[in-house]
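One example copied in:
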Amino acid sequence: MNRITLFRLMLLASLAVPTSAYAQADGASAARDSEIVVTATKREQTLLDVPLSVAAVSGEGMEAMGIRQFNDLQSSVPNLQIDQTNGNFVVSMRGLGSGGGNLAFEQSVGFFIDGVYSGRSRSMQTAMMDVARVEVVRGPQGALFGKNTNAGAISVISRAPTRQFEAQLRGRYEFENDGYGGGGFVSGPLTDSLSTRLSFQAGHEGGYMYNRVTRRDDNSNNNMGIRGQLLFEPAGGGGSILFKAEYAENNYKGGNLTYNGLGNCVFCDQIRAASAAVGGPPERPSFERAQSSAYPEFSRTNNLNLTVTAKLDLGGGFELSSISGYQRLRARTQNDIDISPIAFSDSIHTENSSQLSQEIRVAGAVGPVDLIVGGSYFYARSDILQEIYWNGADKVLTPPIGPLLQGTARLPFHQTSEALSPFAAIDWHLTDALTFSGSLRYNHESKQARVAGEMSVLAYPSYVFIRSRSEALWDYSAKLSYKFGPSAQVYVSYATGSKGGGYVSNDSRLGLTGRVEFEPERARSWEAGAKLRLLDNRLHLNMAAFTTDFTNLQVSSFTGSSFTTGNAAEARSRGIEGDAALRIGDMLTIGGSLAYLDAYYTDYPGAACTYDAPAGCTTMNLAGYRLTRAPKWKWNSYAEVRVPVASDWALTGRVAADYTGTSIYQDDRHPNNIMPGYTKLDARLALASEANDLEVALIGRNLTNKVSFSQSFGVPLVAGSWAVFVNPSRTIALEVTKGF
């Protein structure tokens, strides 16, 4: 048995019988004007004390804003964009992220659940269930968080077991799309040293995409989740051990893909005729929440997480922390590529992936220096299969093209990856006010892959690539912060981040191009910021200015027949962001955020041509062109009022507006691949009694029913046509919450 295999077995055993302990912070805010405690620097600190651009949303805050899914977070976090496409989440931070075209892509924004890195974006489908807080850290975080955080990191922290009994039940009915759901938790002590917490939720989200063929609303979602935790705290103190097991399912029925413009090709006319027979043309002057697919579309995902989080007091002010994690993800998605009643082209892709991770660190202080030293191990295995069926190409396309495209493309992809990463971080308090913070991480990662294409489609040759690669990357950061007393801090920082290279999983043209690999991308960023607490802590201000340079930016773009993945040479993102909250008296709070972003390629030779390029263009340099998923302006504003209406009852009202500027979704810059700027309006009205621990709330999201999309691309072989993934419609829900 080799050493790596032995190490994996030992790590699996540690999930069952850990030898060290760690106690989680609950992170709950005690009052509306108090600071949320965060762990973005692997230490417990208030937002005021962290020399980073961090946005933290408490569980109570998410409930007040009606946030139930991860993509709802972007409405309250500046320079964050989360798009859901075909079951996956595509996350961009400050205009930088990884597209959704390559199914094997790892995100440039790292996602962490209770300290465990999650390598697959589908794991973000898990509902926001019994969450203490979500921390969003912007900018490269390679030294602090590790691999694949060169644009930022999102960290979700669950509520931990409590020493006092508490319980809650929640029920919800949504009127617009006939959705419903419920959930809750039970928490408390079992013995003097054992506490437990059980959290659960289940629901049905009604569909919002009308299907003219089936006469039903598509893209409904049945979901469920359950989480159990057991916390052991020895009576004599000295440490603790937290076990967590979590399982979640999401089952989408029907798709949210529709045409945004149909071309003038022969097949286009056939689609128009077939669609007219079922009640309408497939396109309007602008896209809408309707489609005409006869193919049974679905997306199913289940996710299992096991975590052991522990802490041991070593004495002398030093603590040993350990986080062991295992994740298993299963997914299957079926799509109608031509989005029409014609049985022309369909696809199915399945994914089976698992990962194992371990982090160990020691934290303590030596004189004026706070330090952390540790290391992490990560192993992942992914099996992805995409099958594309060209069922009717010979019937709808004239020879010789039609017969060439009749058949099946089967694209199996297998990859294993392994990484070892030692790291260290210090906070050196030069004076009571001035602190230098530095961190350093070395990451060695190896990947092995088998990339294949089994083609009965004559237009594309079959292929098999068996490749392996190994990379050694250094990341580091340096920060200088100065505190003007207990209510103000300024800082300046320099940080790097990296994302490993990899392989293309689902490009049927690989047999022609041979471009199966892409290289690691690197980020280097300067940032300066200020955090202020003014007017007797009633006014909170956070602001930051930044510039980030990317080299070998990994991109996935549509070429007209398929998505291709590669590296753009260089890109730059610079801008400002800030948020503010002001409490006026005891009843009114107003606030908001603003982000300005200038993100563009500084060099991108060999890119596909833009739609308006001169005739004969084959490739071009996109230097100076704006990055995709990088709106120039984003802002949100809100007002919340709380009015006592009886001795123990209070009425709370909140209204919020969220603006997203123009977003480009493909590098060809065609107008149909651009989402114009838009504003969404949300509101919440709640009546609550603290004595009865009861709340009744009416929650509305996207109240103006604004139609927007989260991805756009040209439809393969339907010349001059575009398709978009449409975002959810208006929802109005009645929610009742009872505590015990």
